[in-house]
Design goal:
Layout: E1 5-11, E2 16-22, H1 26-82, H2 86-94, H3 97-132
Antiparallel strand pairs: 1-2
């Protein structure tokens, strides 16, 4: 019976190389091999999850940029109506200034909520990434 041997498992798709020096029974070897296969499977799963989280982070950063622009534009609309301006004068003459101002305030608030929500979501996603990346 062979009392000592070396096994190398190489997965070229993910650069996984595992070396095993062994001096036990065939049953021990099978258990160790199964554990190594499970470890490789878990590593691939974590890598896929990290890749997905990074893609979500990129998409969310784009949304945040868009929401921030919308939020600033809506707030600018509110400020323009609250100041003495041509727009404010026009809506005052039509008798719709207060209605228009309330509508703009509601739109500004909705934009702020979307932006804040996206920032919170990004924070949670980054926390997930900080947890998952060391496992990669």
């Amino acid at each position: 019976m062979v009392s000592s041997f070396t096994i190398e498992i190489e997965d070229k798709s993910d650069d996984v190389i595992v070396s095993l020096k062994w001096g036990g029974t065939l049953m021990d070897y099978n258990e160790q091999l199964l554990q190594l296969q499970e470890n490789i499977s878990q590593k691939k799963s974590v890598e896929a999850k990290v890749k997905e989280l990074k893609a979500q982070k990129n998409e969310l950063n784009h949304k945040i940029y868009t929401f921030k622009k919308t939020m600033k534009r809506e707030q600018s609309d509110v400020e323009r109506l609250e100041k003495t301006s041509l727009s404010a004068l026009f809506y005052t003459m039509l008798g719709q200034k207060e209605e228009k101002l309330e509508k703009e305030k509601a739109e500004a608030y909705a934009a702020q909520v979307k932006y804040d929500s996206a920032i919170t979501e990004l924070s949670l996603l980054e926390e997930d990434l900080r947890y998952m990346e060391p496992l990669e």
